Every structure is written in structure tokens, then in C-alpha cells.
Amino acid sequence: MRTARGYAAHTPGAPLAPFALPRREPGPHDVDIAIDFCGVCHSDLHQVRNEWDLEGIFPMVPGHEIVGRVAATGAAVRAFAVGDRVGVGVFIDSCRACPDCRAGLEQYCAAGMVPTYNGRDRDGAPTYGGYSERIVVDERYVLRVPTGIEPAAAAPLLCAGITTWSPLRHWQAGPGKTVGVLGLGGLGHMGVKFAHALGAHVVAFTTSPAKADDARRWGAAEVVVGAGGAAWEARAGSLDFLLDAVSAAHDVSAGIELLRRDGTLVLVGLPAQALAVRPFALVDRRRRLAGSAIGGIPETQEMLDFCAAHGIAADVQAIPIQQVNEAYERLLRGQARYRFVIDLASLRA
Ligand SMILES: [Zn+2]
Ligand SMILES: [Zn+2]
After folding, report:
1. Closest ligand to 113 CA?
2. Residues lining ligand 2 (ion), CB within 5 A?
3. What architecture is the 2-159+295-348 domain classified under in CATH?
4. What is the pTM of this model?
């Protein structure tokens, strides 16, 4: 066991502060990764504040949008070599044997995936995330980050990117489809970029007029500003698909009513509160309400390769780790443009 420097919430809701965390010695199949950048995901805030229905494990080192370089490999590692640019997302292990794992959808593993942080590894030890200088991960759960993507801007692809890519691919966003994206934060801004690059007609919905020009730059053909009202009513029944990336409580039925017959609204934003649904919004036009969680390892690699081929990455603001608590407050106030990414060089300085 070795120690690594990192930042942790020592108790639920506490500000993040320096913490020396244990990392295992690399086993035969492990990749030892020196972390360069880690994105700040909204779920990091939820978890350090214990806002979901799961008991957090503290001290908690958040971070599951990790990009780094391979520092060492175990003797049996074949896919990676020292110096390779790699990424780690929301999970670092799963059972590998259930139908979901065999289908490459490890995020739905019947035995439960092992989260990159706020979880327990197979040996029962707490997992610690990417707000740290290094991480040791089995090569099966390590992604290759193509050299064409700037590393800081690649980090958010590992959660925000794949969380929007997976449902857009599953529900076949593409030419001839009208795809709405509700909420233009870390998730939504990637949703607009992907839906546009996949060939869909994209309608972006935001409550923030200041984001309209950005949405058009990402490829939105139309931008609807506001929540509900005449502009929404004018688009009732017009979408094939709506990616709902709002992370706060909101009127999901109003989103469902934007769908045409057999349209689907997919929740990816994970508000902490229950959402009420008006049954008529669903029954009318045989609409569907669905959810989707991140993505499996093969589709995450597919997404990264697609990003490199199409020149896509996240819009990021790099911060030193010493400013992470301030970044959390700015994220809660909706001031991220569009993802804060921690530059871990600040931890080594
Ligand atoms: Zn996340
Ligand atoms: Zn499994």
C-alpha cells in the first residue's frame, strides 16, 4: 500500500480539504495512472453532501472524470504502456460475468458496479476518486484517450460525455430525428454537441438567455429560452426524443408534452427529489419516460474515438484544486461554463 495526496470531504457536507489516501500496489492486471485532470461533476456535490439515498463513505475523495498518463503497468497488462494517455470514468470494476457485463453494459451489472469513489472495492476497501494524484485501476476499466483531444477537455467526456452519448445512441438520434436537450450544463452541453454531430435536428432548452449563443455554436438549430410558457407550447408534440439533463427538481410532465407520438424523454440529470408525472402527459400520444445511466466500457471507448474523429470535447475551465470548494458554490449557482476541471498539477506544486 502506498499513500497518495488528494482532497476529501472528511464528513458529510464538510468542505474538501487535503487528505492522504491509500492506493494499492499495482497487481498483474493493473494500470497505475498519474492523474493530470479531473472534472467536477454535479454528482460529486450530491455525494459529498449525502443527498442521494445512499450512505456515503467518509472521508470521501470525489472525482470520476479522470484523465492521466500511465505511470506503470502490471506484468499481465497488454493494452496499455507507460506514457499512454488514458481515462477512468464512473466505475472501476464489476462482476464481469453477468449478462450486463458480458454485453459491455457494466454500469448495469447485476452484482453492482464498483464506483470509482464512494464505493467499496472487491476487497471491501473504500474507493477514492480522481481528486488525487494517482489511481490504480484494472486495465479492463481503463479507457484510451485519443491524442487528438486536449486532455483537460477530455476529462468530462468520462461522465458527462458518456451519460449523454449512451442514450442518444440507444434511441438512435440521427438524421431525420428532432432531438431536444433540456438544461445546458455539463451534461446538456455535451448532449447538444453529440446530437448535432450524429445528424439530428437539435432544439436546446435553457432558462438562461446567456447560453443561447453557446448552444448555437455547439450545433443547436433552435434555442428555446424559458421554462414552459408560450415558447414551449408552440413546440408541444414536436420532438422525437428529449434528453432531460436538469439536475434540480422540475416539471418533467412539461418536458414529456414536448414529445410527438412514441417519443421518449430520458432522464440523465438525477435530481435528489422525486418527480411527479401527470399521467395524461404519458398516455396521450403513447409517450415514454425513461432513464439512462452513464455507459459501458465499449461504448465509452466508441464515444472517445468519435470525439477525436469529429473534433468534439467539453467546454472547460481549469481550476487549481485549492479552489474546488469555491467551484462547488459556483456550480450550484449555475456559473460553470461548462465544466470545471481540476488541474492536478496544483496538487503536486
Ligand atoms: Zn459524474
Ligand atoms: Zn456484472
Report:
1. 2
2. 94-95, 98, 101, 109
3. Alpha-Beta Complex (3.90)
4. 0.97
